[in-house]
Design goal:
Number of helices: 7
Helix content: 25-40%
Distance between the termini: 28 Å
Strand content: 15-25%
Strand order of the largest sheet: 1-2-6-7-10-15-16-17
Number of strands: 17
Shape: globular
Radius of gyration: 19 Å
Order of helices and strands: EEHHEHHHEEHEEEEEEEEEEHEE
């Protein structure tokens, strides 16, 4: 939007943007945008598994059951449990071991080393994902009074998209006094502002064509999850990507290549998008109660209509954020 301060910078292994509109003696758009940038970088430094001394890395290495944790790590742990519960175990943040064995051990940019077309051509037969029977996400506990995160030693967390959604919501909470704002954490987008102005968001074609659909959001979130953003060939020549089927521990090929989900907050939009993709074509649409866009293997597109009024966006999902 015109008149906004915009910042674009590297974060979460991708490009992040912050837009803030309107300045006054008490609300400086430029200052708010810079504080937002610093906050997002702080989330990345604290919750990235690719930074050896991050809080998350220290938790994952610790031989202790209960580990001291700051507000950001506690928020991530709570969000991981909420994601597992909301998705019936399909969005499982404890699948770090299988993810590393699939080849995602080091940070990679959101530019796939393998094209989506080639990945699909070599992919195994399609089937819906299933939860891991061990459901290790259920073992995660947060004690806010003591400031600890507990889990059996050896259970490691992957922050992934959960951290991006949490970060977008966290920054959005600090920007509500501005007329307009938009926070795009590499595909997890949060939009709002006191002026209640609509903002358009284009849904990209994962196959590289023209945008597939246009969304208009006044106050809410949108998240996109897809198998083409980070795809590669394994040493045995089989295709892999970063979205796993928890039941098998293998990259999920369900018949859906991308899902864009709308929701009141980015944490929920992220979970809904991943859940819909992992459910597969037959049940995906029912996982998008606020609307969204499905893209299938054959390049066909389904637009799922959500509620027509903003009042319908009130849901029983508690977004508990770090201060």
């Amino acid at each position: 939007m015109s008149g906004e301060t915009a910042l674009r910078f590297g974060c979460f292994g991708a490009v992040v943007t912050v837009h803030v509109g309107g300045s006054s003696p008490t609300h400086s758009a430029k200052g708010a945008a810079e504080r937002s940038r610093q906050r997002l970088l702080e989330v990345h430094r604290s919750l990235s598994r690719f930074i050896a001394d991050s809080e998350l890395s220290r938790l994952n290495r610790s031989p202790l059951t209960a580990v001291a944790a700051g507000p950001l790590l506690c928020s991530l742990a709570r969000a991981a449990v909420a994601a597992g519960r909301r998705s019936g175990g399909l969005v499982d943040a404890t699948q770090l071991g299988p993810l590393e064995r699939a080849g995602y051990e080091d940070s990679m940019e959101e530019t796939a080393t393998l094209s989506l077309e080639l990945a699909l051509a070599a992919a195994p037969p399609r089937h819906p994902a299933s939860p891991d029977p061990q459901a290790r996400w259920r073992t995660i506990e947060v004690d806010e009074r003591m400031g600890t995160v507990s889990r059996p030693p050896g259970v490691r967390l992957d922050s992934g998209g959960i951290a991006k959604g949490l970060a977008a919501d966290l920054v959005a909470a600090s920007l509500r006094g501005h007329p307009t704002f938009a926070v795009d954490c590499a595909g997890d987008v949060r939009i709002g502002g006191a002026a209640a102005l609509p903002r358009k968001i284009l849904v990209d074609d994962p196959f590289g064509g023209e945008p597939l659909h246009e969304l208009e959001i006044t106050d809410g979130a949108v998240a996109t999850s897809g198998i083409g953003r980070r795809a590669w060939l394994r040493s045995d020549g089989s295709p892999a990507h970063h979205l796993l089927d928890p039941g098998s521990g293998q990259p999920a090929f369900t018949g859906i290549v991308q899902v864009t989900a709308l929701a009141p907050i980015a944490q929920l939009a992220e979970v809904l998008a991943k859940t819909a993709l992992l459910r597969g074509p037959e049940k995906a649409a029912r996982e998008l109660p606020y609307g969204g866009v499905l893209v299938f293997d054959d390049r066909s597109v389904e637009v799922v209509r959500g509620p027509s009024t903003s009042a319908a966006l009130t849901i029983p999902w508690v977004a508990r954020l770090a201060a």
